[in-house]
Write a structure and sequence with these properties.
Elements lengths: L12 E2 L8 E6 L14 E2 L9 E3 L4 E10 L3 E10 L7 E11 L7 E6 L6 E4 L1 E2 L5 E10 L5 E10 L2 E2 L1 E4 L7 E3 L5 E7 L15 E2 L15 E3 L8 E7 L11 E7 L5 E7 L1 E3 L17 H19 L1
Parallel strand pairs: 13-21, 15-22
Antiparallel strand pairs: 1-10, 2-12, 3-4, 4-12, 5-11, 6-9, 6-12, 7-8, 7-11, 14-16, 16-19, 17-20, 18-19, 20-21
């Protein structure tokens, strides 16, 4: 795992909790039967902070990648670190948060840790909390010195993370900013998330709210988009209402369940460059507005009407 230098202009903020409801996304105690795969993981029973196992970080790096999480959603990110020998002059370990802007540009800061103790100590991750950043992974690494151990990595989010699919059934997720139609977004259900509990009136996607369907006034339809036997909720947003730019890569949908639980989900999109495709052939298009469909139908009929005169 390559070490990445800290950004000189990066402003770091200590993470603190607040009064909003919090749901733990990550709570790794590194017990072998419960944890997802970390790269470089070396488990030991020699010095656990909790449970039976911890990670031996000596001359080793560990890292984990996951689905993008908006930086402003993270309200707690901590881990526990222990060293065997006190030597204030040595740097025993460090960490970095794998971040990027909403346009996909990397923003990774590496922070070394100086050891002044031999017992377990808790460290807070620090990183920018602006809305324009997303987190895609965590790294903890050794930079030499005596034995180091890591345990109980924790990441707590403000809201529940769910799966979202922009332009379902269109793998490229390419959006033409010149379009005036409706953009479909699917909230994917699962064994642990029932989309029928979603409050449609609470949904917000990149500055836009869902469009109602016809005279029924309903927002969204239930479908099984990914064929997993669990219902998904498909809602549509007016493309002209969205705060999208040509550089946008990560998009976020947020909402609440009927019981007030907040949730969010992210997906990755590609924006068609303005004027980059004159014909638009071979590029997925958004669904036209009903009024546009009517005008298209009228336009198609005009030549036939003229021939009858």
């Amino acid at each position: 795992m390559n070490r990445k230098p800290a950004l000189a202009m990066l402003i770091l903020f200590a993470l603190v909790g607040h009064a909003h409801a919090q749901n733990a996304l990550i709570d790794w105690d590194f017990e072998p039967t419960a944890d997802p795969p970390w790269l470089g993981l070396v488990l030991t029973q020699a010095n656990p902070h909790s449970g039976d196992y911890c990670v031996n970080l000596t001359d080793n790096d560990i890292g984990l990648s996951f689905q993008p999480i908006p930086a402003h959603r993270v309200v707690e990110a901590t881990f526990w670190l222990r060293h065997e020998i006190v030597d204030p002059a040595s740097i025993f370990a460090g960490y970095s948060v794998n971040m990027e802007g909403k346009d996909g540009s990397p923003m990774v800061g590496a922070v070394p840790l100086h050891a002044y103790h031999t017992d377990w100590w808790r460290y807070d991750w620090a990183y920018p909390t602006q809305r324009d950043f997303v987190i895609r992974g965590l790294d903890i690494y050794s930079v030499g010195g005596p034995a180091s151990f890591v345990d109980d990595v924790r990441l707590v989010l403000d809201g529940r993370q769910v799966s979202v699919d922009v332009m379902p059934r269109e793998p490229s997720n390419t959006i033409d900013l010149r379009g005036k139609g409706l953009l479909p977004v699917a909230i994917l259900g699962s064994e642990t998330f029932d989309v029928r509990d979603v409050d449609p009136a609470s949904l917000e996607f990149e500055g836009g709210i869902p469009k109602q369907r016809g005279k029924s006034g309903k927002v969204g339809t239930f479908q099984d988009i990914n064929k997993d036997s669990f219902p998904d909720l498909v809602v549509r947003f007016g493309l002209a209402d969205l705060d999208l730019e040509s550089s946008t890569k990560h998009v976020e949908l947020a909402g609440r369940l009927m019981d007030g639980t907040e949730f969010f989900g992210m997906d990755i999109i590609t924006i068609s460059g303005q004027g980059s495709s004159a014909s638009g052939e071979g590029m997925p298009q958004v669904i036209p507005e009903p009024a546009v469909l009517s005008m298209l139908a009228i336009g198609a009929c005009l030549p036939l009407l003229r021939k009858r005169k």
